[in-house]
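Section 5.1 Outputs to date
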Amino acid sequence: MREPSTCPDWLIIYSEKGKNTTSGLDQHVYWILLIAFKGIGRANAKKFKNQSLNYSGIKLFIQKAYQHTDIFEYRRYFYLQFGGDMQETEAKSIRILGISGSPRNMATDFLVREALKIAEEKYGAETDYFSSKGKRLNFCIHCDFCIRTKEGCIHKDDISAELYDKMIWADAWIIGTPVYQGTLSAQTKTIMDRCRAIVAKNPKVFLNKVGMGIADGGDRIGGQEPAIQTILNFYVINEMIPVGGGSFGANLGGTFWSKDKGAEGVSEDSEGMRSLRRTLKRLVQTTKLVKKASSGIESETQSLETPKDEVK
């Protein structure tokens, strides 16, 4: 069953229906949808036209809608999801960017795509993907254009045209790299170096985004962990939150032995796939916690900024 958050046309139809009608039930549906999909905070619930529709009353109105109307194509989903805490429900929608730092569409490409597939199917995440294959990726030349102008990077290549916006959009990143000479690929390092330009423009642009690493090599012990450590160090430097998979098997992240057989080789690495799943689970859990905390802080800020005479 698809989540309603993936059906904006459906959402718009019933939002407009609720906005333009005097029907009490449709008004309930309208405001519930606003809360669910536009992140309206607890403080703002007091400003709703229907004053009885606050956070404590949401479950009751969902039950009423479930029992008395057929307009919800996904009403069972709503009934189950909204029975819990609203802030937790808001935090479940996360956006994950996968980046493959390989010049080929083989092992690394397969692994990053597989991680995104699991994130979508198991955790309901929105995903996007960037592959280095065939892309124009210019090296950072330390010209300091980004520092002087605060206008981004002097290079107008595929990183500037495509990747920067994806990075800003995402709540969490998955960077995958093949192991070359015991460490990252040149493409992966170039992408990380070039992030200096958007951080110079906005030093907090990546603040509290969550990140994990994946590395695959032709040898079982060929530099996978040093490569992942470099990715995790990049996250720390840019005020992101790095995650690993935990002790007893996953450790620093998704580590794979391709045996130089590309996607076939890494797909057969059962221990590698276990490390990927465990690390991805930590990525999703951490991202949800960060979003939930951020939502609470934002709600409290809105509450403090709202004049008393506006709250009725």
